[in-house]
Amino acid sequence: MGIQERLIEDVGLRRGVSRLTPEKIEKTIGAVLKGETGARLATYAETCMRCGLCAEACHFALSHPGDPSFTPAGKVHQTMSVLLDRKGRVDPDFIYGMAQLAYTECNLCRRCVHFCPIGIDTAYIISVVRRICHKLGVTPQYIQDTAHSHSAVFNQMWVKDDEWTDSLMWQEDEAREEFPGLRIPLDKEGADIYYSVIAPEPKFRTQLIYQAAAILHMSGKDWTMPAHSGWDNSDMCMFTGDFEMMGRLKRRHFESAQKLKVKRIVMGECGHALRSVYDVGNRWLGYSYPPVPVIHAVEFYWELIQEGRIKLVKKFPGPVTIQDPCNIVRGKGLQQKLREVTRFLVEGDIVEMHPNMEHNFCCAAGGGVINCGPPFKNQRVAGNTVKAEQLKATGVKTVITPCHNCHGGLHDIIHHHKLGMELKFLSDIIYECMEKPEA
Amino acid sequence: MKRTLPLLILAALTIVSALATVQAVMAQDAITKLAPEAFGTLTRPPAVFVHDKHNEKAKLEECVVCHHGGSDGKIDKSASTEGTPCVECHKVKPAGKATNLKRAYHKQCIDCHRAKGKGPLACGQCHKR
Amino acid sequence: MNAAYEFVTGPLAWLAWGIFLLGSAYRLYSMYQLALKKDAPSVSFMDLGFSLRSIFNWLIPFNALGWRKSPVMTVTTFAFHLCLIAVPVFLVAHVTLWTEFFGISYATLPDNVADIMTLVVLAACLVFAGRRLTQKEVAYITTGKDWLALTIVTLPFLTGFLAYHQVFDYQVMIVAHIVAGEIMLAAIPFTRLSHMVFAAFTRAYMGSEFGGVRHARDW
Predict the structure, then answer these.
(1) How many Cβ atoms from other residues are within 10 Å of residue A168's Cβ?
(2) Beta strands in A300-433 (DSSP E)
């Protein structure tokens, strides 16, 4: 049992490991542990009583019953504990397994927080492991490619500056047929709202930009999108452990909003981006909270509904269920607002998953795991049979999923288990049901 | 018969008092444990204490060594109080700061044992099951 | 035997308590300094209200999701920790010693209750050991440090129970009991038992992050 018995061939990991020497490994590990960690890691490592309560928390563990190497403490036991015990004197083969485990078998979803009486943050420990892997240059190829994209063009998908504005203008052009007078205002100084998205939206989910524009247009809000880099709020560097690049990304993002003197940033239905902007990236830059107020789409729709700015011509037919994304629920407590928005939009039952809200099971895609790409897809899907069972038990056909990663993860699970369910962003439903001008 | 009645009474009295004396002496000899009724239900088994054997072994001649007198929280080593039960002065639950009965016993025994370097110190050495 | 008893209740007791108290204070102080130096972002999010909220919610059996999912462990660990603290602190014999040495006295547990609570601790230790041996997810992560911590905690209660009932040689057992207790005290700052010192703070930090920043329950 253990990571060494389920290694998956990955070009990035293999090439990274081939460049390592024991000296380099020891030096790098020492530098991260001594330079970047302190009381948090020390107390976690020392006081974890190895009670195993967290085994019940993790979707990977629950989906591999009888294999303790998938439990949160089991993962730490195979990675950080070894590094600490051996003071970084481990061999390159060990690093391969450690990297695979840290990048592809933990979603940093923090569900295990609800299981540890002492309050150990396993996601933090795994993040430190990833940080070490990054510094050693041992990262899965696919996610590293997105990190490279971030550092080259400040977005995750190699979208060039002209392609970005082209995509926005294309969507504006398309939308004006349905919504005459609709604009996607670029670089509008002093706008109330700066709408930010993740790069997969202009790349292959442009309808989400269309829908957002439609909602913002019909709600009569004063908004803008930047014509320059900084528009992408996503952050794979946070997940690879490239914190320096994470800092540059977030600085560019915040400064892009500050340059336009907007009142606040509204972000699309993405979970990890909220984590990066609201919780992790801002702190790397020294901000306790984002220097420009940031709200997630769920909060924004909730506000619009409170203000009576979303007018529906029909309700979406239920029953539906709700996927609680870890980064907006365990990350910002949006579970109630998510339900209120859903209640407003849906006619019929909202069938809750069990467990739900903060206790919901992760999609197994977040935390950069889905971004590690095809080599790890089967392991990722196999690592979340509990989610498949949980989805199936609701007996409904529609899953409201306000997070890109959850979409990706649930899509693969639904497909693999032939559950025949469809996934909906809230914006899909709002767009479908909202009042539109007479064509 | 007139003369014999007072003699008989005298004899009877003598015998009774003699018996009483013998009984008292026997009682003194029979002290093998310390369990004054004042404690009520005991928490631990009574402390084993064979009075005469202890004193013989400890070479104690003077009663006052243990049976001290005193007042106002001061021990008077000159006033011997043998025959007076400890609880007369050391109440089980005294008012104020006075030494209670349990502590008095413990102090009396353990402090001396410690000072002399002889005799039991730990709970179970006296409170034997 | 008196010399041994006098030594373990005298100099060795001072040493054990000294290591426990000063060691714990030192560990806390140095960990706090390290936190200020290396974990300032974490320290800055500490919040008393949310810390207490988290600690309070975790102190209620079956309140946290983790407790609900492992009921046997929940019952065991709550009973264990309660008895582990209450028996040594409120035992008649221990309070008698405090009185004898320092004139301090306070409420005590009836001996028969303390006796049962000691058995609860020993039974819990058996459950813990059984989990480490038979439950895969626990066995997998169990290390020597964990067995050491469990042994250190078991011994004072085992010897205490035997000494109280005067099984085997009482004089040997009482000295062994005192030494075992002193080893436990002295081990607290420097073994896994240090969770006694640190757990409130790791819990508090998690509570502060979840309460103040993430607006979600951490139980």
Answers:
(1) 22
(2) 316-317, 320-322, 346-347, 398-400, 422-424
Between CA B18 and CA C187 the distance in angstroms is 66
Q: Which two tokens stand for residue A243?
A: 């914190």
Q: Which two tokens stand for residue C33?
A: 């300094």
Q: Which amino acid is at A378?
A: N
Taking chain B, what is the end-to-end CA distance rounded to the nearest angstrom? 59
Q: Classify A364 as helix, strand or coil.
A: coil
Delimit the CATH 1.10.1060 region(s) of chain A: 3-139
In the three-class reduction of DSSP (H, G, I as helix; E, B as strand; rest coil), residue B10 is classed as helix
Q: Which of C94, C106, C111, C166 to mutate to test the interface with B (most CBs of B within 10 A)?
A: C166
Do B88 and B53 fall into the same domain? Answer: yes
Whether A263 contacts A222, CB under 8 Å = no
Q: Provide the pLDDT confidence category of residue A438 given band limits of 50, 70 and 90.
A: confident
Query: Can you spell out the DSSP letters for A337-355?
Result: HHHHHHHHHEES-B---SS
Residues B50 and B108 in one domain: yes
Instruction: Say if residues A148 and A72 touch (Cβ distance below 8 Å).
Output: no
User: What is the reported pTM?
Assistant: 0.92
CA–CA separation, B28 and C196 (whole Å): 54
Beta carbons within 8 Å of A401's beta carbon, 6+ residues apart: A323, A325, A407, A410, A423, A424, A425
Question: Is residue A272 within 8 Å of residue A239, measured between CB atoms?
Answer: yes
Query: Do residue B14 and residue B67 come from a single domain?
Result: no
Taking the CB of residue C172, how many other CB atoms lie within 10 A of it?
14
Residue B57: CATH number of its domain: 3.90.10.10
Q: Minimal Cα distance from C208: which residue of A?
A: A119
Domain range for B25 is 1-29
φ and ψ of A399, to 5 deg: -115, 115
Taking contacts as CB-CB distances below 8 angstroms, the residues of chain C near B121 are: 2, 5-6, 9
Angle in degrees, 0-180, between the axes of helices C11-38 and C195-208, rounded to the nearest 10: 30
What single-letter amino acid sits at A9?
A: E
CATH code for the part of the protein at A3-139: 1.10.1060
Q: Which of C140, C146, C150 to mutate to test the interface with A (most CBs of A within 10 A)?
A: C140
State the complex-level ipTM: 0.95
Q: Which residue of C has its CA nearest to B113?
A: C2
User: Could you say which of A40, A118, A333 has the minimum Cβ distance to residue C214?
Assistant: A333
A72, pLDDT greater than 70: yes
How far apart are the C-alpha atoms of A431 and A214, rounded to whole Å? 7
Q: What is the pLDDT of residues B81-107, one digit of tens each?
A: 888 889 988 999 888 888 899 999 999
Tell me how many domains chain B contains: 2
* Sign of the CA dihedral with C162 first, then C163, C167, and C173 last: positive
